[in-house]
Specification:
- It is a single chain.
- A four-stranded antiparallel β-sheet has the order 1-6-2-3, with no helix packed on it.
- The relative contact order is 0.38.
- The chain is mainly beta.
Amino acid sequence: MKYVTVRQVTNGSRTPVKLPADIDVSKIQRVYLLLNEKLFNEVGPVHWKSVFIDDRMHDWDVRRGHLYYYAHSSSRGDVVDIILGLED
């Protein structure tokens, strides 16, 4: 799995997340709330340590070619950094 960090994402369901142009949303397999970037770089995604694993449909989804992030791991309106787990 390839990981891409997306910074300054606003938690809320109505506005799609602005992604880098080279991201194919159909390849998004996982979305993580970044908790500890240094630890993530050392060991990868570890739930409740380096990341919080967000659930598809409950916390995020891809609809009409856009990623929507409405996670319960942070409050609506919070600005967070997320990591996308992309299919190789």
